[in-house]
Amino acid sequence: MKETRLTGFCRRLLFALAFCAGAAGIFFGYIPEEVIRSFLFVFCGAAVVTTALWAVWQSRMLSDFSNDICETADALMEGRELQNFSPYEETAFSKVQEKLLRYYEKMREERQQSIQDKQTIQELVSDISHQVKTPTANIRMITDILSEHELSREKQSEFLDLMTVQTSKLDFLMQSLIKMSRLETGTFVLHPEDTRLNDTIARAMSTVLAKAEKKHIRLSADCDSRLTVKHDPKWTAEAIGNILDNAVKYTPEGGTICVSVRPWQFYTRIDISDTGIGIEEKNYNAVFQRFYRAEEAAAKEGVGLGLYLARGIITRQNGYITVKSKKGEGSTFSVFLLS
Question: pLDDT tens digits, the chain, 339 residues: what are they?
Fold first, then answer.
């Protein structure tokens, strides 16, 4: 308020002086020379005093402005609450203060994201190290046995078969980890196209056909061959294939797995139903986490990345996956793709 009053006073004084000067010019011919000189002396003195007051006021304003900006910057750097924050005032200081605060908030969000990314990378490295350790140790052990002991051809063949199994597990693990890292680092590129969903499902089912036949599991699919959906055929088949692989893995011999497709208004729904061991309701969200393995699944081969990758692939196509299950009676995973 003091600054406003001072500004108004200076303006009124300058206006009065200008008015007096104009009036004096009009009446120069009627006023004695001595009076004119006195008036001009007073006018010039008043002008000098006004200019000096104006300069002092501007200097004070600039000093206060810089001090307030420095105080705001110090508070933001130290994480203190702003004491003189006035976002609704139409002043230069309020505008600069608001910009500083927005910049600070943006930097803080980026810093938090950086910390979160570093934590994710650390967890990822730890998980990879843990997962790779077991097959690597088994391969090393088998190699030591073969190199340090004289074994019969039958035993050598047996250990070589075991090494092949462990090597295959390690290769599967590394391929899954590569896909996961691409998914999490944003280098996962999808190429959606309007194509027949029936072909994608057939492609997914072909990846588990041999395993299903080995366990005498009956596979069936119900999908209109004319139905087209915009999606990435390769990666969508991978996602559905991962769900099918889990279904085959946890369905007992002689069971059934059915894939059914139902067009909705905005989404196309793909249900993958099995007669497997089922999932407890409390674990519905956990099964989509990376490296998650339920206690009853510990004896089965796998690393717990299939459903995690499936959800990531479908989510990046603006779709989603849900699950409904009953312990001991089977599960139904539903994939929703935008129609």
Answer: 344 455 555 556 555 655 565 555 555 555 566 666 676 677 677 777 778 777 777 777 677 667 777 777 777 676 666 666 665 556 666 667 677 777 777 777 877 877 776 776 677 677 667 777 878 888 888 888 888 888 888 888 888 888 888 888 788 777 777 777 777 766 678 889 999 999 999 999 999 999 999 999 999 999 998 999 999 999 999 999 999 999 999 999 999 999 999 998 889 999 999 999 998 888 888 888 877 766 665 555 656 778 988 999 999 999 999 999 988 889 999 999 997
Burial 58-93 (b: 16+ CB within 10 A, else e): eeeeeeeeeeeeeebeebbeeeeeeeeeeeeeeeeb
231, 177 contact by CB (below 8 A): no
Contacts of residue 335, defined as CB under 8 A and 6 or more positions apart, other chains included, come to 239, 240, 243, 269, 270, 271, 272, 310, 314, 319, 321
